Amino acid sequence: MDWETTFNQLVDALFSQRQGEEAIKLTLVAEDSQFTRFNQGRVRQTGIVVSGEITLTLMVSQRTASASVPFTGDKGTDWSLLSATLEELRQELPTLPIDPYGVLPEGSAASRELYPGHLLPAEQVAPTLMSPLAGLDAAGLYAGGRSLRAYADSEGQRHWFETETFTLDYSLFTPDGQAVKGTYAGRDWDDNAYAATLAESKTLLGRMVPGRKTLERGQYRTYLAPAAVAELVGMLSWGGIGEGSIRRGGSALGRLQRCEQTLSPQVHLTEDFSQGQVPRFNQYGQLAAVMLPLIQSGRLVNTLVSARTAKEYDIPTTYAEGGEYLRSPILAPGTLATEAILEILDTGLYVSNLHYLNWSDRPQGRITGMTRYACFWVEQGKIITPIENLRFDESLYNFWGDYLIGLTQETTFVPAVGSYGYRDLGGTQVPGMLLDRFAYTL
Questions:
Q1: How far apart are CA 427 and CA 327, in angstroms?
Q2: What is the phi-psi region of residue 256: left when phi exceeds 0, alpha when psi lies from -120 to 50, beta otherwise?
């Protein structure tokens, strides 16, 4: 299906209907994806989803109205819906309040990025996934196929982003209900890479002996595996790295921005679009820099500044999305050898995953959450036993500050695996992280 041609035809037809000082923009989200869900080692649901949604935004006299309609890829069908929607928005717009910080389209930026992949054919997905899982109690979801994002506006900006990717999010279970979680993702399916990923999970599964150690609350030397580190990095998108939250006084990085606090010089965080995981263009049609350093040597050097925040505070934009969240973050690696991490940890906790994260005191950078999946008590460099789930409550100024012993030499891509509405794109590239102490509250 030639979605790009249809989208461009709709853009030309719609913008020819522009009246007076109207500004119009169109955004497209679409996918052609295979989903295969399995549990207890058997495929329970499989099929292909072809879906699209096009959003029309009309702006005039500091007022903005938007509406979304299905995108079928058939010009006649889609044009009928769009033209009717445009008239509805024209009727609605005068009734809406003025928005002094609304961002009008400007410029003529254009981009076209295509990232083809080599995915499993639909008929090979189930046998390829399930054969190495024979004899295991396994549950998970494979999602793979073509994903599209596009933007066009009446000032001349046009962007097209198309990628073929897959994600596999799975868990392996012991007879007593303990679990090991893993992910495998990319553009090119590799049987050997899949086997290696499963081998790591099976090794951890073999260490999930019956019975779990209950630990007292307190501070423990801790190794956080990449999946856990990715969860902590993700919290910066929620009232952390955005300039708007800093200006309003509620940011977790406010103390860092005011130079009241620094992080460890080992911490380097960058927004990096060079791998083509997500589009560079934002909801305003602006192209972000290929690379934007955010934290260098523990110091905040840039924030994510949307065009709306830039207009409100009369400052330059860094072409962030309106929500000022991380889109393609990379936390730089360190010097610790991953294969020697248990020996370096010596005695303490090996934490594979975290979940249910939230701010417990955002201005102080305190995050709370729970351990989850394949977390172990380690003594003298050897895994002894899995642990009961623990709640942690710790400040990022500690775990990325004085408590940080080091980061691993290797980084791992932790994919975004959500599929609410449409498959999420991208993910987080992070190393593992060894801490001198980490606070567990119950």
A1: 8
A2: alpha
* CA 88 vs CA 46, 83, 92, 94: distances in Å: 39, 9, 6, 11
pLDDT in tens, 191-210: 999 999 999 999 999 999 88
d(CA 415, CA 183): 7
What is the rounded CA–CA span in Å between residue 50 and residue 377?
Answer: 46
Query: Is residue 19 classed as helix, strand or coil in its secondary structure?
Result: coil
Residue whose pair of structure tokens reads 């730089």 in the numeric block = 332
Which domains, and CATH codes, for the chain?
3-206 (3.30.2290.10), 218-440 (no CATH)
pLDDT over threshold 80, residue 1 = no
Residue 53 and residue 159: Cα distance in Å, rounded? 16
Is the model's pLDDT at 24 over the cut of 80?
yes
Nearest to 153 by CA among 55, 298, 235: 55
What is the pLDDT at residue 102? 94
Q: Within 10 Å of residue 98's Cβ, how many Cβ atoms?
A: 9
Q: How far apart are CA 345 and CA 433, in angstroms?
A: 10
Residue ranges of E strands in 252-390? 269-272, 291-296, 299-300, 329-331, 348-351, 353-361, 366-372, 376-379, 382-386
Q: Per-residue pLDDT tens for 399-431? A: 999 999 999 999 999 999 999 999 999 999 999
> For residues 278 and 325, what is the distance between their CA atoms, to the nearest angstrom?
13
What is the spatial distance between Cα 94 and Cα 88, in angstroms, rounded to a whole number?
11
Query: Which contiguous run of DSSP H or E holds residue 8?
Result: helix 3-15
